[in-house]
Design brief:
Elements: E1 10-16, H1 20-31, E2 40-46, H2 52-61, E3 67-72, H3 78-88, E4 93-97, E5 101-103, H4 107-113, E6 119-128, E7 138-139, E8 154-158, H5 159-164, H6 183-193, E9 197-208, E10 211-212, H7 215-219, H8 227-233, H9 249-263, H10 275-283, H11 297-319
Parallel strand pairs: 1-2, 1-4, 2-3, 6-9
Antiparallel strand pairs: 4-8, 5-9, 6-8, 7-10
Helix pairs in contact: 1-2, 8-11, 9-10, 9-11, 10-11
């Protein structure tokens, strides 16, 4: 009888939904790791309504030295897909990479090297895709030091810590129709509360796609709705926000401007309370707006910041936890 196949050291889990070009780039980057192919496996969980990604993965399997498996499921957001991948994983460590990312050749080696006794989570460095021009409506992910959000675009879990944390929770918005995310934050802080420590691996590098947003996508960030709920579950997160009760300094300045507007019928001097917002937005660093155009930045951002203020207010009321 032949001996059993050795268990891999790490399982790489990639949730996917359409976008086959990005998925190809992600999986091909995993096939180029400077890591023993027998020591890792790749698991893709696809929620696409067609079989385009499945046909792509069948093609890539023919050139894969590590094990490459994939599963199909209904679209429910990336959290359940990651949980399904973890359920089918064979390794003691779980590495999560998003399908719109490409891992550097040393990604697995450097991420795993950061684990030590008691370390349950290792976060890697994420940068925008090299050579992609910046545009006002472009969006990407950049993580250059340990982030309190523990984004799953590039993160490693000790399997024991992942299991103790209960995996990624269902969408935190409950019965609401739109998925709001936040499951990566909730899992990480549950694991930290259980006593596991975290590390940041600077050389566990991935590049994140740079995607052009539509104006509507840029204007409305519905993910902000869930942030008050995260704070209600994990009050320790407050220290990462501006003055603890504002999402950032721009929202704090905008709240001050709204206060000035409300007081204006009593005294016109109250309108001066709007000046910090316009100064902050006009003079913040910008790679796209130069010279006098920087003065227009506040007026460009005012509608977006106002919508964000309304979304945060709605979330604060819904989850009975204030964050403006």
């Amino acid at each position: 009888m032949s001996p059993p196949a050795p268990q891999p050291l790490v399982s790489v889990i990639v949730p996917a939904y359409r976008r086959p070009e990005s998925l190809r780039r992600a999986v091909e980057s995993l096939l180029r790791q400077d890591f023993d192919p027998a020591a890792y496996e790749i698991i893709v969980v696809d929620s696409s309504p067609d079989d385009v990604n499945a046909r792509l993965l069948a093609e890539l399997e023919t050139q894969a030295a590590p094990s490459l498996r994939w599963f199909r499921k209904a679209p429910e957001g990336p959290g359940p897909s990651r949980n399904l991948g973890a359920h089918h994983a064979h390794a003691a460590f779980l590495a999560f990479l998003d399908s719109d990312c490409a891992a550097s050749p040393q990604w697995l080696r450097c991420g795993l090297a950061a684990f030590d006794d008691g370390v349950g989570i290792v976060q890697g460095r994420t940068v925008p895709q090299t050579g992609t021009p910046h545009h006002f409506f472009n969006r990407t992910l950049e993580v250059r030091q340990e982030s309190f959000l523990y984004e799953t675009a590039n993160i490693f879990y000790r399997r024991q810590a992942f299991v103790e944390g209960g995996g990624f929770p269902p969408d935190l918005a409950g019965a609401l129709e739109l998925p709001f995310g936040g499951e990566d934050v909730a899992l990480a802080w549950t694991v930290k509360r259980a006593g596991w420590t975290t590390r940041f691996a600077h050389d566990a590098l991935v590049e994140h796609d740079v995607r052009r947003f539509t104006y509507k996508e840029w204007l409305v960030d519905h993910h902000l709705f869930i942030v008050p709920h995260l704070i209600s579950r994990f009050p320790e997160l407050r220290r990462f926000f501006f003055a603890r009760y504002f999402f950032d300094r721009y929202q704090a300045a905008l709240s001050l401007a709204f206060l000035g507007l409300a007081l204006a019928p009593l005294t016109w001097f109250a309108l001066a309370l709007a000046s910090p917002y316009f100064l902050l937005r006009s003079w913040e660093p910008s790679r796209t707006l130069r010279g006098p155009l920087r003065l227009a930045r506040a007026f460009l951002y005012l509608p977006r910041d106002t919508v964000s203020f309304c979304v945060l207010i709605s979330g604060s009321i819904r989850f009975r936890t204030l964050l403006l």
